[in-house]
Specification:
With about 350 residues, the chain is an alpha/beta fold. Helix content is about 40%, strand content about 25%. The two termini are about 30 Å apart.
């Protein structure tokens, strides 16, 4: 179980020098738009693998006219304190993120950190999750899988890299031995991604069903993969044959017609209609329900206590959304970071919370 105890920014985004400590339970960051609330969440998210909640280029994280950024964290993991230092480093004209754990750069230390930190994230654009693009919904699902499998991004990135390599070979019409090998690996990785996504949705649907009984959600939610190609019992050979038969098509259109990169994630409400028909506030309810279900799954099935990063969660919080958010807060012994434009947006949270006025920094 991990808790962020404190954080210090040096030349990160809009912060030249900023340092604060955090509460073990609820931390509410409020202030005007553009004051840096999301930047703080982004800095916290950089402790994990990857480029943070915005997936930003590392160079863009550095404050203007500065050479690099530095983030210093103190984290409690299983009641032991660790100093985590994150900074940008330029190598071969490119910036990369470097992490030290107690001043140690070893793979063992980084593996320990990655296995100890898990985030569940809400961003404002998720209020229209089911009206967004299929790629956005795929990324939403993939982020949920990543919260319990910190090696999942490596799988996705390798799959995407192979797709690009296949397209290049098709365009030049050469090296078919290499193409055969690439397509075999694409099928292996593609099936793994399909299965992981399908299992994740099964877990979520099961948790949503359990939680509905004691929460009395206003509607039922069932998540599904929408994919014209994927079926549960498809095997590697069938996948490979289909991929090979599509070479002419894919060469002409410059892509790969089938695979998990073409999937969509849909949500059926009350076994009747798609969640895209819901209002913005109702779509937000569905997202919060899914995050509640995911947290329940992580804690009870994976023994992982995630940290919640909820950006601009204060908007469109009707009574129903407040109740779901309160359920998440009261149900789990995890750490929360919530942002909003006004402190009063969070007056319904009766539990003791630490408030931070970011505008005044």
């Amino acid at each position: 179980m991990a808790k962020i105890k404190s954080i210090e920014f040096k030349n990160f985004r809009n912060f030249e020098n900023f340092k604060t400590s955090f509460d073990n339970k609820i931390n509410i960051l409020f202030g005007d738009n553009g004051c840096g609330k999301t930047n703080i969440l982004e800095g916290i998210s950089l402790i994990a693998k990857g480029r943070g909640i915005r997936n930003s280029n590392i160079h863009n994280l550095i404050k203007k006219k500065a050479d690099n950024f530095r983030i210093i964290n103190n984290i409690e993991i299983h009641k032991n304190n660790y100093d985590i230092e994150i900074f940008s480093e330029k190598s071969s004209d490119k910036f990369k993120k470097v992490i030290k754990v107690n001043n140690d750069l070893s793979k063992e230390s980084l593996d320990f950190l990655n296995q100890s930190i898990s985030y569940l994230i809400f961003m404002p654009e998720m209020e229209r999750l089911f009206q967004a693009s299929p790629s956005y919904r795929r990324n939403f699902l993939d982020r949920l899988i990543f919260s319990s499998r910190n090696d999942y991004n490596r799988l996705i990135n390798k799959y995407k890299k192979l797709l690009l390599e296949r397209v290049k070979i098709l365009q030049v019409n050469s090296d078919y031995d290499w193409l055969n090998n690439i397509e075999k690996e694409i099928c292996t990785l593609g099936l793994e991604i399909y299965n992981l996504r399908n299992h994740q949705l099964n877990f979520l649907n099961n948790e949503l069903s359990i939680l509905k009984n004691d929460h009395k959600f206003q509607f039922s939610v069932k998540l599904k993969i929408k994919d014209d190609f994927f079926i549960k019992d498809i095997d590697h050979q069938e996948y490979l044959s289909t991929l090979q038969n599509l070479r002419t098509h894919d060469r002409h259109y410059g892509g790969t017609k089938i695979g998990p990169h073409r999937s969509d994630v849909i949500s059926i409400i009350n076994d009747d209609f798609d969640a895209s028909m819901l209002s913005t506030g109702q779509q937000k309810t569905v997202v919060l329900m899914v995050l509640l279900a995911q947290c329940n799954f992580l804690i009870n099935n994976k023994k992982i206590n995630p940290i919640f990063l909820f950006d601009e969660i204060g908007s469109h919080l009707d009574d129903i959304n407040r109740q779901v958010l309160l359920d998440i807060i009261n149900r789990f012994e995890v750490q929360f970071f919530l942002t909003g434009t006004d402190k009063n947006l969070f007056s319904f949270i009766s539990t003791n919370a630490q408030f931070y006025n970011i505008t005044n920094i």
